Amino acid sequence: MRAITPAKKHHHGNLRPALIKAGLELLEEGGIDALTLRKCAARAGVSHAAPAHHFDGLPGLKQAIATEAFVIFSNHLQEAIDAGEQSARGRLKSICRGYLQFGLTHRGLLNVIFGFDGLAAIANPEGKDEAHAYLILRSVCAPFVPAGTDERVIEAQVWSLIHGFTLLYIAGEFGSPPPDIDIGPFDEVMALLDRIGTPPS
C-alpha cells in the first residue's frame, strides 16, 4: 500500500503567497480554465475553504495572481535591459529579447496575460497593475518618438513586432522545436527596429 504523504501545512502569514504561487503554476499548466479555488487549495496543501479567508472568492484570487504575473513579467523585461547594451537602440532590442525569453520560459503565463480571457483586464479595470511593464516599454521607446508624434504609435509598433514574433516563435513557425534564440531569426526580424522612429542625436 502506498504511503500517504501529509499535505504541507502553511502558517497564516504565508498561506496567501502559497495560494498565489499555486495559482500561477495552474495557469502555466492548463491556462485560465485550470484556475479554481479548490485546485489552488489542493496544490497549496490546504482545505478547500482556506482561500476564502484571504480572497474575495475566485475573482479576488485571480486579481492577486494577475498582479503577481505582471511583477514577474516586468522583472523579466528589466533584467534583460540591464544585462544588455546600454545604448538607446541596444535597450530597445534588449527588451524585445527579454519579451521573447519570457514567452519561452513562461508560455502559459504569457497566454493568460494577453489572451482573450487573459489577466490584463482582470488585474485592474484601469490597467494599474500592468503599468510597470508598460512603463518599461515606454521608457525604452521614448528616444525614438519623433517630435509631434503620439508616443503610443511607436510603443504600439515595437510591442506589436515583438509580441507577434514571440507568439509565432513559441508556436514553432520558425522550426519545431523553436530554434535557439541566439541562432534563430530573432536578430534578422528585430533589425526592423532600426527603422523605428527617429534615432537619438
TrEMBL record:
The keyword Transcription applies. PROSITE patterns: HTH_TETR_2. Keywords: DNA-binding, Transcription, Transcription regulation. Residues 13-73 form the HTH tetR-type domain. Transmembrane segments: none annotated. Residues 36-55 bind DNA. This is TetR/AcrR family transcriptional regulator. The lineage of its organism: Bacteria, Pseudomonadati, Pseudomonadota, Alphaproteobacteria, Rhodobacterales.
